[in-house]
């Protein structure tokens, strides 16, 4: 006769330690991707909808599991019991458990539809700041049109600057494959579909720098397709916008001059993909605009901090 072996104590200890480590991973205090720390009206309305659905699901779970546990204990087979009475359908019960889920679905559907339409329509469709977003493999292009001069559109990459407490209207497009625009603390995901413009609006209610990313698998470097949202005062935003619209400053430092010569030279061919405003040769459109790349907090699609320390010893 075979006997069951007791669980190995060491194995259980190792599994508990692994499980504890997984829990600790989720305890990062910065929570850059937490949707529970909403800092904008769109994210806050979506969080409120989440709680409605969560408590509806919790109610269903408690009722179903409660009935299941009660029935399992109440009607469990006891020694000497014969076969139970066989029931072949109960019309009242079947009607009941059809109507009850329908009521729950209505309870969930009404706030869902209201939230969808509220978030789909910008509260300021005409007067708000307009930014055109283009998804690329694997970086983000942000275009700030000039309402007074169509030829003065600011083109930048991987950093979205917006003024605090103001509506910002976004158009979303893709130049290649499906992408998904997601700023966890400010707004939920909206897809970028080739040859189909989508729109959304956002508002940041707290100043700061917020992590954002592509949330749709778009190829081998999808995990590195990040960007940053800088929410700042209107004065800071206007100053940034004016400085970004200007041409690149002509370098005077010998090392910077050498870098420019390499960038525009025939061997590196950087100019064939990238633009530097003010440069006659560097007018490429395939890669990000690098006119004021030195002012950005991050480069390489937001994955590397743009500081000297981060590049010491790095072969570019």
TrEMBL record:
Gene3D superfamilies from the UniProt entry: 1.10.287.90, Cupredoxins - blue copper proteins (2.60.40.420)
Co-factor remark: Binds a copper A center.
An individual GO BP term: ATP synthesis coupled electron transport
Residue ranges constituting the Cytochrome oxidase subunit II transmembrane region profile domain according to the UniProt record: 27-123
Transmembrane segments: 12-31, 51-73, 94-117
GO CC terms in record: mitochondrial inner membrane
Protein family according to the UniProt entry: Belongs to the cytochrome c oxidase subunit 2 family.
The protein's name: Cytochrome c oxidase subunit 2
Native source organism of the sequence: Geodia barretti
């Amino acid at each position: 006769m075979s006997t069951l072996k007791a669980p190995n104590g060491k194995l259980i200890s190792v599994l508990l330690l692994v499980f504890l480590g997984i829990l600790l991973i989720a305890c990062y205090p910065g929570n850059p991707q937490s949707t529970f720390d909403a800092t904008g009206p769109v994210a806050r309305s979506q969080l409120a909808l989440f709680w409605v659905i969560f408590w509806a699901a919790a109610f269903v779970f408690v009722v179903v599991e409660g009935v299941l546990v009660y029935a399992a204990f109440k009607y469990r087979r006891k020694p000497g019991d014969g076969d139970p009475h066989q029931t072949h359908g109960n019309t009242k019960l079947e009607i009941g458990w059809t109507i009850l889920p329908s009521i729950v679905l209505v309870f969930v559907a009404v706030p869902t539809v209201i939230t969808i339409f509220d978030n789909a329509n910008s509260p300021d469709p005409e007067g708000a700041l307009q930014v055109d977003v283009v998804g690329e493999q694997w970086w983000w292009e942000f275009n700030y049109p000039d309402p007074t001069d169509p030829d003065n559109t600011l083109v930048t990459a991987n950093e979205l600057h917006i003024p605090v407490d103001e509506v910002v209207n976004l158009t979303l497009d893709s130049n290649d494959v499906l992408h998904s625009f997601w700023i966890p603390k400010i707004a939920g995901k909206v897809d970028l579909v080739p040859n189909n413009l989508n729109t959304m609006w956002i508002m940041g209610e707290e100043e700061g720098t917020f992590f954002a990313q592509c949330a749709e698998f778009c190829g081998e470097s999808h995990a590195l397709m990040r960007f940053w949202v800088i929410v700042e005062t209107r004065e800071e935003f206007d100053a940034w916008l004016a400085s970004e619209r200007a041409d690149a400053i002509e370098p005077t430092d010998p090392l910077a001059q050498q870098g420019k010569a390499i960038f525009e030279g025939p061997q590196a061919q950087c100019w064939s993909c990238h633009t530097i405003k003010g440069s006659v040769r560097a007018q490429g459109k395939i890669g990000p605009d690098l006119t004021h790349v030195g002012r950005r907090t991050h480069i390489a699609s937001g994955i590397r901090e743009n500081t000297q320390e981060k590049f010491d010893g790095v072969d570019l």
